[in-house]
Amino acid sequence: MYRAPVFLRQLEPRTGRSASDVIKYALWPIAILTVLQRVVVKAVNGYITDDYSPVYRAALAFLNHKPVYDTNFDYVDPHYLYAPSATLLFSPIAIIDPEKSRWCFIAINAIAIIIAGYLLLRLFKFTLSSIAAPILLLTMFMSETVTNTLVFTNVNGLVLLGEVGFIMLLLSRRDLWAGVAMGLTLAVKPILAPLLLIALVRGQWKVFITAIGVPVVLTLIAWPLSADPMDFIHHTAPYLSESRDYFNSTIVGNGLYYGLPDGLVWFMRVLFGIIVLVSLWLLYRYYRDDELFFVTTASGVLMTAQFLLSSLGQMYYSMFLFPMLMTVVLRNSVLRNWPAWLAIYGFLSYDQWLSNRFPTMGRWAEYMKITFGWSLLLIVVCAVLVDRYLVAKREGRLESGIDPAFLRDAEPERVPARS
């Protein structure tokens, strides 16, 4: 019988011998081609929304010691809103021409997102040979948050890497390095600042040394190199504290857009604030010793609250919920139910609901799906935790935790695909 040479047999497509193998072999080419399509085609093509041009102009102005903070906020075009510390970090992008610089920035963010995904796999004890790897890669690059981060050429991919690095280093008790990861993101934008609360309640005080020190040092370096640093304080900072009625999916943003009474807007913000506090208390009281579950779930609750209750929240911020979404592989996850994934569809899906046939309903669905998703996610997390608490209280076992009986009494879940 004829046998092909060894080097040719290596090229022979493998046949899946289990359902896990079949899914992996099917998803890997789809995931890889989706990544390439998003990066090489969709991102390079760009879109009318362009977050990169203001950053490039600011970096070029900084290198030439010209004013940076002279944006006219009367227009809705993307503005340059970063602090001098971020401008310092961005300045190398202006060394080359704008087009190649943008391509490099797209590539850097795409690589950062892929590395963040790999670190999440390792955090949850998966390998690249597991079924989780292609599922996570495909999910990330099919989502609106990753797609528009690349298309608009935003810095969020690098911030996501900083978030995942912070969580991993926090869990491994490498506090100073965790603070460095957080400090670099804070130097760019303070969106991850709520996560410092997790370090606070865990008593990891050293995190704050570098988390505060890094942006302070970068600011001290950037301040004398900037032509107009005080304009950031007097011109840009006040704008950052305002709520706007466009491209804003927060409760207050939708309230402004739809003309809701201020009293109703504040009622909803307070109500969801209470929901967040109840969830965080139950997580801390009963799960703080389950470190991976506690840190990743609490981080998701804090970030969702930031998106929903602050003055500005945009759909592509949902990228920072990836650590929480990975908790679905844990037995005690609060996301193992269909309402949670209905919520996740709302803020991750790239689907558009604008309709030529039903313009009013389509516009409402398109604009509200993000707010609906964030809101429902907070409700689901709180409902699951409160239900577990009430059942445990009724059964008189609060002292031993609030996990359902089927989780406490069952054998540890075996997931062969992780190895």
TrEMBL record:
Places the protein is found: Cell membrane
Highest taxon in the source lineage: Bacteria
Membrane topology designation: Multi-pass membrane protein
Transmembrane parts of this sequence: 103-120, 126-143, 150-171, 177-200, 207-225, 264-284, 315-331, 367-386
GO molecular function ontology, one term from the record: hexosyltransferase activity
GO CC annotation terms, alphabetical: plasma membrane
Keyword set, alphabetical order: Cell membrane, Membrane, Transferase, Transmembrane, Transmembrane helix
InterPro entries for this protein: GT87
Family from the record: Belongs to the glycosyltransferase 87 family.
UniProt name for this protein: DUF2029 domain-containing protein
Organism, as annotated: Antrihabitans cavernicola
